[in-house]
Amino acid sequence: MKDKVFKIITISVVVVIAACCLFPFLHVLAVSFSDKTAVIRGEVLLWPQSFKLSAYKAVFNNKGLMDSMWFTLILTVVYTVFSLIMTILCAYPLSYPGLKLKSPILLYILFTMYFSGGMIPGYLNIKSLGLLDTFWVLVFPTMLSTYNMILMKSFFQAMPRELEESAYVDGANDFVVLIRIVLPLSKAMLATIALFYAVSRWNGFMDAILYINDESMYTIQLRLRQMIQASQVSSMMEEIPEMKADLIAETIKAACMAFSMIPVMIVYPWLQKYFVKGVMIGSVKG
Q: What are the chain's domains?
């Protein structure tokens, strides 16, 4: 009886949390596909009223928004690849128990997790390196996450050392062991870490605000922020005169937000099975 009550409470809590996450998303989608009259009257909740595609036509006809989308896609791919490489190269050596100066090195890396130089010293450092208004300023400064590195390190430590030792007996070096044995067995963790990096880069905009002035390198999130805060929504309505009567700022903003979610919605189902395995690593021992 106690187990049934516990399961009912657990399921109820999970359903409520899931609803809190899902309902705002459904509302944004509903507004983006609805007629402006229904939106103005407040009739749109979770289902579109008088289905319209005018807001999405305005979004796809906006060159600045489309350029930012493609730029952010390329940036996210490059950032994720570089971040994975850095995380692996940092975590793999630290997973060896016999590594010299392992504790001081790990402490030095962990220090950056709790303390930083601050925004102004960070900006001055980036400026002195000549990275302002460059592609790489959105890649290099946050390329390694200490938290993700610790997850990867813990996973490598849990792998049977016998597999690596047998490869060493056959004449393999450290690089071959990493590429041929360790990484193929780490697909779940690699997919999980890659998803963490990709989502953080896709959603990030603070570094773009600080370091980017060139509009050709605006990320999608920075472009959306600029559009919502400024008067660019009105200019998008002017770009399609024949549909101006069907558009209001609320529907365009909702369409822009939904538009920015498309890549994540496409990629996540492909990585879901690996993601579930990755987040469960370490929860069961035996």
A: 1-52 (no CATH), 54-280 (1.10.3720.10)
0.85 surpassed by pTM: no
The predicted-structure confidence for 219-238, as pLDDT tens digits, reads as follows 998 888 877 765 556 656 55
Q: Express each pLDDT in 7-55 by its tens digit.
A: 888 999 999 998 888 888 888 888 888 887 788 778 888 888 888 888 8
Q: Could you tell me if residue 145 is left (phi over 0), alpha (psi between -120 and 50 degrees) or otherwise beta?
A: beta
